[in-house]
Amino acid sequence: MMKNAVGRDIPASLNGIALTPYKSPWDCMPARADCGGKGGLPESNKLVKSIEEAIEATGLRDGMTISFHHHLRNGDYVMKLVVDAIARKGIRDLTLSASSLSAVQDALVPHLESGVITALDTSGLRGEIGKLVSAGKMAKPVMVRSHGGRARAIELGELRIDVAFLGMPTCDLYGNCNGVDGPAACGALGYAMVDAACADKVVAITDNLVAHPLRQISIPQTQIDFIVKVGSIGDPAGISTGSLRISKDPKELIISEYAATVIEHSGYFRDGFSLQLGSGGASLSAAKYIREKMKARNITAAFGVGGVTGIFVEMLEEGLVDTLFDTQSFDATAIASLKKNPRHLEMTAAYYASPGNAGPIVNNVDAVILSATEVDIDFNANVLTGSNGKLMGAPGGHPDTAAGSNLCIVALPLVRGRMPVVREAVHTIVTPGSTVDVIVTERGVAVNPLRKDLLDNLKESNLPLVSIEDLQRLAYKLTGTPAPTPPGGDVVGLVEYRDGTIIDVIRTLK
Amino acid sequence: MKLRRTMLFMPGNNPGMLLNADLYRADSVVFDLEDAVSIYEKDAARDLVRNALKYNEYNCEVGVRVNHISTPFGYDDLEAMMSVKPDFLRLPKSEEVEDIQRVDEFVTQAESRYGYELGSVKFVLTIETALGIRNSYELAKASKRVVAMGIGAEDFAADMQATRSRDGKEILFAKSQLLLSARAAKIQALDNVFADVNDEEAFCAETLLGKELGFDGKSVIHPSQIPLVHGIYAPSEAELEKSRRILAAYEEALANNSGVIALDGKMIDGPIVKRAERALAYAAAIGGQQGGR
User: Fold this and answer.
1) Closest chain B residue to A418 measured between Cα atoms?
2) How near does any CA of chain B get to the CA of A388, in Å?
3) Residue B164 falls within a domain, yes or no?
4) Which of A42, A197, B81, B180 lies most in the core, judged by the most C-beta atoms within 10 Å?
5) pLDDT at residue B293, rounded to an integer
6) B22 in a domain, yes or no?
């Protein structure tokens, strides 16, 4: 028996379990990694004066893994601010894990060259960082993951994050955060939510520090260890456009209309169906035609999934879509809607797309329209590199939603510039052809022969149905047969399929 | 019935547009060597259009607007185009019967030379002056190749010293005159280009007026205008249903040798039957267009 700090007799052990007598409210706070939840520190202890102080407080040291999100897209200041500070502190050999790397992150190149960052784990690779990887200048191979695959790897502990540095558009004094308020509002924080929940230490970096408690909470105080106030976390102009609008490019509109017509006749276009649309090109424009067709047939969708854009929000507000699930909000309209509309729900990347849980929402999606840099006669899709192997994109949710949905449409032009886009073989396989059901181009629509049901349903559609081989031959007829891509060199990166297996590799380019 | 609801103009000096010319489901496309091409690019555009016609397979009627034979480019254009045989030539500034006949002679000789079927290259005339409107019937009859004619609104209004308005009232008389001549000559009449591609409302109003006047279709300068025209020119389901009932009543009356035919209490006579037949033939011609449109 021993007396604890409040004067009671406590046995040293009971039934063989050692007991620790109470000392004070704060002396024996469990470390977060031990208990799976954050013990509370007094308010003043969370707020630190600078990013440098936060780095020290987290115990960051050589060889660890740091993480970031890409919700601030091409307006992000946070990644550079943090890695600059880490470099000044002399910490080296870090793995940088990001939900994606937008073009603005080219600013990290000096730190990749100098060895502050020696490994990358990301969805997107492009620009100067892409060139650096392709030139074989990274010390360790790059890991490219889908959004769902990254969430799976983090939640299952395959990708262990030591410190997450998360730019938060609004954060209160005790660490509750959201993305819908503040000068750098970006909307949903779906990718950051996974990092916040699973990283050993989490630093919220904000330019809009408000009184506790924040009313609309996306990331709770229970997950935030430290808070830093900075002047600005991002440039609103790079975070979102005013409102993404429907293309006026007549060729793109034809592709969109065909894609919408595929959905209309697929057999899935019925009351209560569900839909996912991307933010790019034909996928976004297809919303216009789907909306018209829904109105004409008087049907509504149970839910929509995104990457949410203004047109999806308009469909929500018109009652054409009952609920929106949003991992990231692409424009000002979507950000405003997430803030005010209770039927516009924020979701984590794991809820969206991880194959490592009991079921992400992509499994419930009827129809999705995606794009690609190129596709091939086996319906494989490349969304990471060009036909020449140049890194220029990101898997994003492409493989996840292709696998989960009932109907995966890849909509893209047959020819871009003078390059055929439907080819005999794609350079990099990101999404396997067995999960792609229909390829839509302005000159023809090809249905995967695995989907005989779809072929039957689409016969009545009046669409220009062709075989994928004919589509590829037509592309080559217009452009000429492309010269074979020179073989790549050493393997410098891995393309992980969402389940953790490796579906392709990235090699050095000559 | 040869549908010419839409005739899409494409500048002859833009390779991407020439490649994708037939994507937009216009009934006809016209590659323009005339006003869309600056004087410094005339020969380059001519080469480009010739090669486009030579190597690309288009799935719609394709014509070329050549320069007038009074310009230094007119005959070179004709010579180059006849080597690749467009479906039709769109002849600008059609004003004098003799000019049409000269082009006809040239084209006839070229057809023999290349071994094409004689008369297979058609003409579509563009009338752009007061004199042209006055001569429009004779122009329409100047060659058997002439299958349609239209009005170049901007040039015509300039020639008339008129002020262009959003609703185009200043060219209404000329349009009506052109239509009259076309119908008298039994060729098609094409409504004019509407230049402001962003003013959908005025475009649709003008298109509807043209359709109601009796035009066969409209010249357009942007793919976005095509579905609008096709929508306005499409007979409605109600119209088609009525046409079917009119024809059924007519046939029944014929079978019964009944003199007077009535449907829903209204008399049906020759013109009504003719209109019903035209609506159904038109719908049949539209049927089978791809893309669910």
Assistant:
1) B16
2) 22
3) yes
4) B81
5) 41
6) yes
Which residue is listed with tokens 């879509």? A321
Q: How many CB pairs below 8 A link A and B?
A: 37
CATH number for the domain harbouring residue B96: 3.20.20.60
Token pair in block for residue A188? 């949903």
The interface predicted TM-score (ipTM) is 0.78
User: Hey, are the CB atoms on A251 and B23 less than 8 Å from each other?
Assistant: yes
pTM of the model: 0.87
CB < 8 Å to A264, chain B:
292
What is the span of the domain harbouring residue B273? 237-286
pLDDT tens for A417-464 read 889 999 999 999 999 999 999 999 999 999 999 999 999 999 989 899
Distance from CA of B15 to the nearest CA of A (A): 11
Do B154 and B67 belong together in one domain?
Answer: yes
The answer as to whether B66 is a domain residue is: yes
Residue B274, in any domain of the structure: yes
DSSP per residue, B86-150: -SEEEESS---HHHHHHHHHHHHHHHHHHTPPTT-SEEEEEE-SHHHHHTHHHHHTS-TTEEEEE
pLDDT in tens, A129-184: 999 999 999 999 999 999 999 999 999 999 999 999 999 999 999 999 999 999 99
pLDDT digit string (tens) for A335-349?
A: 999 999 999 999 999
Same domain membership, residue B259 and residue B151: no
Residues ≥6 apart with Cβ < 8 Å to B16: none
Say whether both B142 and B194 belong to one domain.
yes
The pLDDT tens digits for B63-87 are: 999 999 999 999 999 999 999 999 9
**Which chain A residue has its CA at the smallest distance from B52's CA?**
A478
Q: Which of B20, B24, B291 sits opposite A463 (nearest CB)?
A: B291
Within chain B, how many helices (H) and strands (E) appear?
12, 10
Domain count, chain B: 2
pLDDT score at A181:
97
With an 8 Å Cβ cutoff, is B291 touching chain A? yes
Mutate one of A245, A252, A254 to test the B interface: name it (highest B CB count within 10 A): A254
Fold of A34-239: Glutaconate Coenzyme A-transferase (3.40.1080)
**Contact flag A250-B23 (C-beta cutoff 8 Å):** yes
A250-484: what CATH class? alpha beta
Please answer whether residues A116 and A79 qualify as being in contact, where contact means their C-beta atoms are separated by less than 8 angstroms.
no
